[in-house]
Amino acid sequence: MLNFQSSIFNNFMRVLITGGAGFLGSHLCEFLVNKGFDVVCMDNLLTGDISNIAHIRTEKFLFINHDVTNYIYLDGEVDYILHFASPASPIDYLELPIQTLKVGSLGTHKALGLAKEKKAVFLLASTSEVYGDPLIHPQREDYWGNVNPIGPRGVYDEAKRFAEALTMAYHRYHGVDTRIVRIFNTFGPRMRLHDGRVVPTFLRQAILGEDLTIFGDGMQTRSFCYVADLIEGIYRLMLSQTNEPVNIGNPGEMTILEFAHLIKNITSSKSEIVFKDLPVDDPKVRQPDIQRARSLLGWEPQVSIEEGLTNTYLWIKDRIQRLMEKGKK
Ligand code: NAD
Ligand code: UDP
Questions:
Q1: Which end of the chain has the least Cβ crowding within 10 Å, N or C?
Q2: Which pathway does this polypeptide act in (predicted)?
Q3: Of the residues 23, 93, 164, 197, which should be mutated to test ligand 1's pocket, given the most ligand atoms within 8 Å of the CB?
């Protein structure tokens, strides 16, 4: 069971977050600093941005620019290592296939090695992509997945599957206290406008009055989780005693066509919807079964998709406005 009281009180528990300057990592940095942790953010800014963490100004926060596929040296004690470094959007990992495979394999190896050395709890940011184009729906943690290892998406899916296997090997063989979170599609402020993921893409297109580009016929489904819910789930998992993988995501499933209409409603946009080619191996369905998170962590999402999207819309609108003022969009 969870033991929040004894874990938080901690007088200066120290956390290392790899990939901490990215979308999710920066929210985690901020959340854990606010909880009183000393936070070390390690990132090589491959797909992240220093502006995501520039506002965290406290002596409890340290940024280190480092590529975690190389040996990680960190002075002093570390209680938790949260390994989030990896390109994560389909266009990022299609453009950076080797870096994606390296950070999932070599990077995870270095981060686990550090956890073993420091006797730290290790938490791997895994993904619903380990289920590939799933043949079981919704996806439970005991489903082994349906991944094409040689397709273009395979670089990400297999890197994460290897990272899970390595994490379990360090747990079983070296006794490292590990956690694995399988994150389903998450959205919120600080997503890059051009990262290609459907949430920032449709919001940007709707705001600018451009066509909303649906890939395929739009009948494929996704289940979108607001970032604040995800971070709370990860925090609970980190403090739990759970070594097996846990899905964290919002079970509210919709087709991409329904999602496009929702975006038009929320933004009051007159954009047209157009249809483009479906990328290779694009999963047809995706929905987390969150029974394990409910029973082990007492977690379930609290933020509705409408509320989460409205917050994200306002953030992206503001970002576009600032960029336009600076002369680029
Ligand atoms: P992101 O691209 O915003 O963040 C990833 C961060 O990792 C970036 O700051 C990048 O610079 C850093 N990074 C990449 N390679 C590195 C390296 N070799 N050394 C140091 N830093 C490196 O992506 P995100 O959406 O914040 O995803 C974060 C993690 O969560 C990833 O591991 C991703 O696979 C996982 N995840 C995210 C989602 C989601 O919906 N956002 C879903 C499933 C899994
Ligand atoms: N998608 C789309 N139009 C876009 C971007 C994405 O129709 O401009 C689709 C994509 O093909 C996928 C879904 O939206 O079916 C979610 O894509 P995203 O890249 O956000 O995440 P993932 O495919 O990793 O779930």
A1: N
A2: Nucleotide-sugar biosynthesis; UDP-alpha-D-xylose biosynthesis; UDP-alpha-D-xylose from UDP-alpha-D-glucuronate: step 1/1
A3: 23
Alpha carbon nearest to ligand 2 atom 13, residue: 198
Cβ-proximal residues to 309 (8 Å cutoff; 6+ apart), any chain: 187, 199, 203, 262, 263, 266
Q: Among all ligands shown, which has an atom nearest to the Cα of 188?
A: 1
**Is 93 within a domain?**
yes
- What pTM does this model have? 0.96
Q: Is residue 324 domain-resident?
A: no
Q: What is the pLDDT of residue 4?
A: 43
Nearest atom in ligand 2 to the alpha carbon of residue 286 is 25
- Phi first, then psi: give them for residue 218, nearest 5 degrees: 80, 5
- Report the C-alpha gap between 80 and 134 in whole angstroms: 32
In this structure, is residue 216 part of a structural domain? no
Say which residue the tokens 């936070």 belong to.
39
Per the structure, the complete domain to which residue 169 belongs is given by 14-187+226-251+281-302
CATH code for the domain of 34 = 3.40.50.720
Which residue ranges have their beta carbon within 6 Å of ligand 1? 18-19, 21-25, 43-48, 67-69, 84-88, 103, 107, 125, 127, 183, 185-186
Residue 301 alpha carbon to ligand 1 centre in Å: 21
Cα radius of gyration (the chain) = 19
Total count of domains within the chain: 1
pLDDT band, residue 182 (cuts 50/70/90): very high
Specify the residue with its C-alpha closest to ligand 2, atom 1: 198
Is 313 tagged catalytic? no
Residue 257 lies in a domain: no
CB 235 within 8 A of CB 194: no
Q: What is the pLDDT of residues 317-327, one digit of tens each?
A: 999 999 999 88
